[in-house]
Amino acid sequence: MQKTILALAGEMWCGKWTLTSYLVSEYHAEVYRFSNPLRDIIDRMHREKSRDTMQQLSTALRQVFGDDILSEIILADIGQSNSSFIIIDGVRRESDIKYLRNLEGFCLVYIDANLETRYTRITFRGENSSDTTKTIEEFMKETEAEPEVRIRDLKEISDAVIENNGTIEELEKAFEKLNIRK
Questions:
Q1: Which residues have a Cβ under 8 Å from the Cβ of 18 and sit 6 or more positions away?
Q2: Distance CA 161, CA 150 (A)
Q3: pLDDT > 70: percent of the chain
Q4: pTM, whole model, 2 decimals?
Q5: What DSSP string runs through the chain?
Q6: Where along the chain do its domains lie?
Q7: Biggest distance spanned by C-alpha atoms of the chain
Q8: In this structure, are residues 34 and 90 in contact, taking their beta carbons and an 8 Å threshold?
Q9: How far apart (Å, rounded) are the C-alpha atoms in residues 83 and 31?
């Protein structure tokens, strides 16, 4: 069975999860998020799932186990999947796709959105405990954290780039124009 393995990259709140939700609904895609192993560990530690905690944990795991530890986890997880359409959400650095890039059907799509749009989205959605009360200054500081800074480099090596400063429908149409799901 031919698989489509779509890795989504982009700065936080660019629209990765919105596109993922559409693809799950439209194509019954199976989703793997780089943040899931981090959330699992934080749950086991009975700690608050804040962006800061996840960034610190990500950095610590990479320092101890290697820059590609999360990629190894994702590769093992998708290797057990029978789905024909897999989405990998939250690619943050080139090492995240070190092993995945060699898989047949792999495609890296970078979603780009401006800072103001992303700030509006984070405070509206409130996925993490501190998101709804976050100031623009706090958000700007978070975008400069180590796990976030390297994301921008992925735009240059992506197979496609989607600009996402508009509506959800415009994002969906931009994806469909890529003709990745044939």
A1: 168, 171
A2: 16
A3: 93
A4: 0.85
A5: ---EEEEEE-STTSSHHHHHHHHHHHH--EEEETHHHHHHHHHHHT----HHHHHHHHHHHHHHH-TTHHHHHHHHHHHT---SEEEEEEE-SGGGGTTGGGSTTEEEEEEE--HHHHHHHHHHH--STTGGG--HHHHHHHTTSHHHHGGGGHHHH-SEEEE-SS-HHHHHHHHHHH----
A6: 4-174
A7: 48
A8: yes
A9: 10
**Phi, psi of 31, deg, nearest 5:** -115, 135
The pLDDT of residue 134: 80
Tokens standing for residue 130: 């501190």
Residues of the chain with pLDDT under 50: none
d(CA 19, CA 168): 8
Whether the Cβ atoms of residue 26 and residue 173 lie closer than 8 Å to each other: no
User: Could you tell me the fold of the domain covering 4-174?
Assistant: Rossmann fold (3.40.50)
